[in-house]
Every structure is written in C-alpha cells, then in structure tokens.
C-alpha cells in the first residue's frame, strides 16, 4: 500500500495540482491587494468617497452609528455586510478572468506543440527525363 501511495504522489498530475494550489494562494493575495488597494478606492471615488468594503446594514442588535464593519461585528449584532460581498465578487471576477486567459494561453501553446512541423513545400523542378523523351516521341510521330 505504501508503494501505491508513493506512485500516486510521484505522478505528474498530483505534483501539478500541488504547484497550482500554491501559486493560486499567492495569486489570491495579489488579487485581493489589487481589489482593496487599487479598484475599491477608484469605485469609492466614483461613489463620492465612500468605502463600500465596510458598508453594512444592521439586521438586529445595537451598533453605534459611526461604527465600522469590524466594530459592528465585535458587538455581536446581526449585520448584512454587502460591501464585503461586493469585494468578494470583484475578486472572483478578476481571478476567473485571469484563469480564463491563462487556460487560453496554455491551450494555444499545447496546440502549437502538437501540430506537426510544417512540411517544406514541394519544389517544382520541371518535367522528368521520361516526360521529355515521351514529348519528343509524340512530336516525331506527328511529322
């Protein structure tokens, strides 16, 4: 059983999956920073300086009016954090788009690698010796 497990781990697919998960985790951090540090401020500027990542609605409980999202969560009140959901949706769309572009790029490379090398075009060298002799014979036969 131990040998089967070693064979399973040694297969390329498992190693590719592990590398993909590690790179995906690092990429998620980059996308989260992109959204929170670059995209959200621009959207907030368009919305009049509002930081929508901390937008929420109190469903039940007492939360001070000027409390941020973290402070509202600490009070134990039931809140509807729609700003955090919007941020998560933006993160998802960016990650999905980048993964789509990456898969498209990899598929293009695979199709180029699988395509046979272009065959050199056939060079036209003119008629063969036999063709010339047959043509001479036919011309002599006409006379």
Automatic annotation (TrEMBL):
The chain crosses the membrane at residues 17-35, 42-59, 79-103. PROSITE patterns: MSCL. The gene is mscL. This is Large-conductance mechanosensitive channel. Belongs to the MscL family. Keywords: Cell inner membrane, Cell membrane, Ion channel, Ion transport, Membrane, Transmembrane, Transmembrane helix, Transport. HAMAP family: MscL. GO terms for cellular component: plasma membrane. It is a multi-pass membrane protein. Homopentamer. It comes from Sulfitobacter litoralis. It is found in: Cell inner membrane; Cell membrane. Channel that opens in response to stretch forces in the membrane lipid bilayer. May participate in the regulation of osmotic pressure changes within the cell. One of its GO terms (molecular function) is mechanosensitive monoatomic ion channel activity.
């Amino acid at each position: 059983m131990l040998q089967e497990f070693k064979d399973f781990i040694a297969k390329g697919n498992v190693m590719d999956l592990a590398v993909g998960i590690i790179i995906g985790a690092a990429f998620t951090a980059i996308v989260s920073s992109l959204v929170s540090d670059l995209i959200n401020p621009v959207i907030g500027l368009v919305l009049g300086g509002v930081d929508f990542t901390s937008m929420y609605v109190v469903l039940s409980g007492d939360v001070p009016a000027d409390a941020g999202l973290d402070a509202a969560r600490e009070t134990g009140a039931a809140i509807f954090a729609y700003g955090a959901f919007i941020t998560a949706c933006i993160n998802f769309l960016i990650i999905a788009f980048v993964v789509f572009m990456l898969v498209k790029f990899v598929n293009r490379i695979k199709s180029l690698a699988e395509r046979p090398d272009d065959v050199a075009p056939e060079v036209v060298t003119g008629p063969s010796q036999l063709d010339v002799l047959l043509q001479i014979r036919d011309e002599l036969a006409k006379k």
